[in-house]
Amino acid sequence: MAEADPVLRLRGLVRRYGEGPRQVPVLDGAELDVLPGEAVAVMGASGSGKSTLLHLAAGMDRPDAGEVRIAGVDVHARPEPARTRERARRVGLVFQDYNLIESLTARENIELAVWLSRSTVDPARIDALAGELGIENLLERRPDQLSGGQQQRVAIARALIHEPSVLLADEPTGSLDRRAGDQVLDVLVEAARARGCALVLVTHSDEAAARCDRVLALRDGRLVPA
Fold first, then answer.
1. d(CA 62, CA 55)
2. Is the pTM above the cut of 0.85?
């Protein structure tokens, strides 16, 4: 059987910061292929460019050189409005600090991702996903009524509700204790695999990385086996 095509493909990514002779290359030819349902951990020292890599992969920032393809589409070849729409439709994002809107309930935070992707809100789909993630009884609570682990599960639901091709997670357990972090990682990895979603997990944790199919390190601006 032929191997599936990568759903996320990064080629020759270069990103520099600063101006003129003071420019610093954070990424210098980074490359990565992630298959549907595959989980890849990216590790590296602070300041090595891990978050920059995710921002480029999501289309939130432009590379100085190189290419990002999601489901075969060159993300950065499109003008900004189209790139924003593509990101809302194809990419799910999970952050360390949850990024939930405090004035909205958990359900409304999840619904927000559906509105941004210009899809129709299906309450039954939200209920089913909430049940899968173990937050079915928390949907009418606001973030300040939830624990950190519960908030991150809501954030994962928000990232998955529009069925993205790619899920990008930036230190998703960095604000959680060990037990809550382990539970969130189990939910995140299994939910992505069940959907055939390409998962890229940026982490400092060896335990988190061990849950993934591959572990890479970002060194000198490039991705290498850890």
1. 8
2. yes
